[in-house]
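Appendix B. Extra example for self-study. Work through it before the problem class; the solution is given directly after the inputs so you can check yourself.
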Amino acid sequence: MRGHLDNHEIAAAVAGLPLDEPATEHLAGCLSCNRQVTALQRLTIERRRQMADEAPDWQTQQEQILSRLGDSPAPRSARRWMRPALAAAAVVAIAVGVGLLQQPNGVGPSQEIAVEEILAEADALLEDDSIPGFEIIDPRIEDPQAYVGNGVS
Amino acid sequence: MPAQTDPSHSDGALVMRARNGDRQAFGELVSRHQRRVWLVCRQYLGADDADAATQDSLVKAYTSLSSFDGRSAFTTWLTRIAINTCLDALRRRRREGFRIEEPDDREGESPLERVSDVGAGPEDRAIQRQAVSRLVACERQLPDRQREIFRLRFYAELELEEIAEALGVHVGTVKTQLHRAVHRMRRELGDVR
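Solution. C-alpha cells for the complete assembly:
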C-alpha cells in the first residue's frame, strides 16, 4: 500500500492531470490528500465566482456588438473576391508568357512548358464555382455550331 | 434556445448563415459564446476592459468569418481571436504607460486554510476575499506563460487541448507549465508538505 501523495502528485491532481493508478486509488480513500488537493481548488472556485460577479449585462453587450456590425463589412468568402483577381493575374501571366514566346531570339522548351503550366493553372482556377462576372450566360455562345441551321439570331 | 445538438443549429451551421449576412445567426453565436469570450478576456484585462475586448473580439470574428475554415472548433478559433485582441490591448496600454495595480499581500496564515467549505456569514466571506487576494498576488509572481495557462485553465475553464491550440503550443507544454504553476502556487500559498 503506497503512502501519501507527494507534492508533485498533488499539484497534478489539482491541475486535473492524470495520475498513475496507485496514486489515483490512494487519493480516492485518503482524506488528508484530498484536503490538500481541494484546498487550492476551492480558492480558484471562489476567485471564479468573484469574476462572475464582475460580468457585464449579457443582453446589453449583445446589443452593442450587433449594433457595431452595422458599420462592419459583411463577411464574404475570401475565395469569391480572390478568384477574379487571381484570374486576372493568370491572364497577365499568360500574356507575359506569350510575349516571351514571341522574342526574336526564340524560346526554349522550358519557356513553352511554363506557358502550359500557366494555362493549366488558369483552367484549374476557373473550373470551380462560378466567378462573379465570369458566368457563362448562354452555353451556346461557346459553341458556334449550336447556331447552324437553327435560325437563332 | 435551440438544442446545439441539432445540426441545423450547430455552430458550423450558424457560421455558414452568418457568412451570408444573416445577422440573426451571428446574434445566436454571440449569445452562445460571449460569456466564454469574456472569461478569456478577463484573464488578461480588468473587468471593464474585458467587456470592451469581448465586443472587439466578436466584431472581429464577424468580419473574419470567411477565414474560419473549420479545421479547429469554432470556440477555439474564437478563443484565439480573443487572446490576440487582449494582447493588442495590453501592448497599447504599455505604450501609453498604463500601470496595473497589484493587490495587497497579506502576511500570516496560509490562504488555503482560510477558505471554508460552507459559504457562511459575512465574516467567512471576508476571510475568503482575503484568501483570494493572496491567491491573486501569488498568481502575479508566476512567470508569464505559467500565469496565463493557470488562469485559462482554472478561471476560463478551457480544456488543455484548447489552451494549446489557442496559444500555438504543444499540449505537453501546457501540461508541464500548468503543473509547475500549481506546484509553485501551493508552495507560495503555504500548503506544501
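Self-check: Chain B has a mean pLDDT of 85. If your reasoning did not lead you there, revisit section 3.
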